[in-house]
Write a structure and sequence with these properties.
Layout (H helix, E strand, L loop, with lengths): L2 E6 L4 H12 L6 E7 L3 E7 L2 H8 L8 E7 L14 E2 L5 E9 L2 H10 L9 H16 L3 H9 L4 E9 L2 E10 L4 E4 L4 E4 L11 E4 L4 E6 L2 E6 L4 E2 L4 E2 L15 H7 L1 H9 L3 E2 L4 E2 L2 H4 L2 H6 L2 E6 L1 H18 L3 E5 H4 L10 E7 L5 H12 L3 E6 L5 H5 L2 E4 L12 H21 L4 H22 L2 H11 L4 E6 L3 H16 L2 E6 L16 E5 L6 H13 L3 E7 L11 E5 L8 H18 L18
Parallel strand pairs: 18-19, 18-20, 20-21, 21-22, 23-24, 23-25, 25-26, 26-27
Antiparallel strand pairs: 1-4, 1-10, 2-3, 2-4, 5-6, 6-7, 7-8, 8-12, 9-10, 9-11, 11-15, 12-13, 13-14, 16-17
Helix pairs in contact: 3-4, 4-5, 7-14, 7-15, 10-14, 10-17, 15-19, 16-19, 17-19
The structure holds 5-amino-5-deoxy-1-O-phosphono-D-mannitol.
Amino acid sequence: MCGIVAYVGHRDACPIILKGLKRLEYRGYDSAGIALMNGDLSVYKRKGKVSDLEEFIVDKDVHGHIGMGHTRWATHGEPNDVNAHPHYSSSKRIAIIHNGIIENYAALKTLLLEKGHTFQSETDSEVFINLIEDIQQNSKCSLPEAVRLALHEVVGAYAIVVLSKEDQNTLIAARKGSPLVVGIGEGEYFLASDATPIIEYTNDVVYVNDFELVVIRDGELEIRTKEDVVQTPYVQRLEMALESIEKGGYPHFMLKEIFEQPRSILDSMRGRMIAESNHLMMGGIREFENKFVNAERILIVACGTSWHAGLVAEYLIEDLARIPVEVEYASEFRYRNPIISERDIVIAISQSGETADTLAALELAKSKGATIFGICNVVGSSIARATDAGAYTHAGPEIGVASTKAFTAQVTVLSLIAMIIGSKRGTLETTKLHQLMVELESIPAKVERALLLDVQIQEISATFKDATNFLYLGRGYNFPVALEGALKLKEISYIHAEGYPAAEMKHGPIALIDEHMPVVVIATKDSSYEKIVSNIQEVKARKGRIIAIVTEGDTTIPAMADYVIEIPETSEHLVPLLSVIPLQLLSYHIAVMRGCNVDQPRNLAKSVTVE
Ligand code: M6R
């Protein structure tokens, strides 16, 4: 986790770094700090948000043309002023910011203590900077060389930036496993965990690769490997609009992102299908089409909301393409000694493309010979680059910690994949394919209609904002939606919520139901409709308070439910794209009414780059 930003150039570094940190706050927000060089190497850091840091430095001299900043999600050591980054070395000559985890920090710390180094914090990052200092002192080498040598000693993940007060014109950075982007401006350079702090100033970026060392000195950029081989920087031009990373008049990013879905769903299918001529195309798949068509099994690895999208894909691919699908929590899969063969296709789904467990799971599958396909939102992210092929979701930057538009974009791309494989395998007949494509094309307009439910959902939210538990039930394609609705509510409102397959409820959770239990039932008109009507009766018989998500025009369930939310009709294959919308809005409004920080819920961060 954690966000890092650094700047060197003709402008004042501090405002650029602070603004960049705010853009990266989604990555962690328990403390923030900044280091600036202005003759000295000054570090200012504070527990809390970037705004707390801003208050803290308001009366300090924070000028300088080179500096670095950090926003933290704690791993080693509780969130406090001391554990906040940047960290000085013992001598205070050099300082570091670090995103990642150094796994062998305890052993390194013991060695460094024996050699007389002292530590202020409980962090692994302070060990890293003292290791660099120790190497420099002992081998009498330059600082970049000491950093390079230190990379051979540390085990784990890192994106680091190092500054030295003895070298007022140099930024040194390195990466392994945690993202790092260099922005190249006119006589200025930027370093950041992602491109959002950079694009206001330049669209030219270089994605740093694992085991690369970056030295920016006197206006020159040099990249070399850990083995000291000089690399030619590959400069890419980013197409990212500044407005896409701003709130645009909405009170929260999450609400903006919910309301962006008609557009983001359209963007994720754009150029990939023409329903009129039954034409489907997805560049990433073309090269591996035979592998997909002949796959014996498809494994999906993902975490959180992306895992829920994977579960929707299991229903879609098995139904339309008749290939067995297994959906795995990446964090379990990677430690399970799974059976994987060269005939397997592994799909890794990740909004950020940086989730450590998903990355490790795909690396494991790759090492066993499987073909790896990635579905990521963030262009150039680690997962996107580690896969054999893939498709971007094109949902645009998602900044709210609770994933919303990424989910619908993932489901859209997965629906297209299921249709492509199904039609190539001959398991999806042309008429049915055409119907699905026409229906998919109509989804953005139907999402627009579903968003009109916002006012009604605010009223329902006011009724239930003080509930302590929620149950979400769904069957078939709506079962993953039930899981997703429950996850949304718990992560931003801190209300305990469980998602369950509606029929499984009678095997345990039914015991929880009484007149105080709100039960959200996703009961759209589909092949399990009659069954879920029975499940609603079971809840009603136990006095549960039913909030039903139904298809427009349904008259049966409204007669039984306490609250009814009607969404437009669609094919059951695509229904998650609509049924998830009211659940996103419900969790959003409940969280706002409870006074929660919707975009930055406690203990969470947007991308989980630790195991
Ligand atoms: O970036 P990823 O899609 O790999 O992230 C996976 C999960 O960490 C993420 O979906 C998380 O569960 C969200 N906070 C859910 O809203």
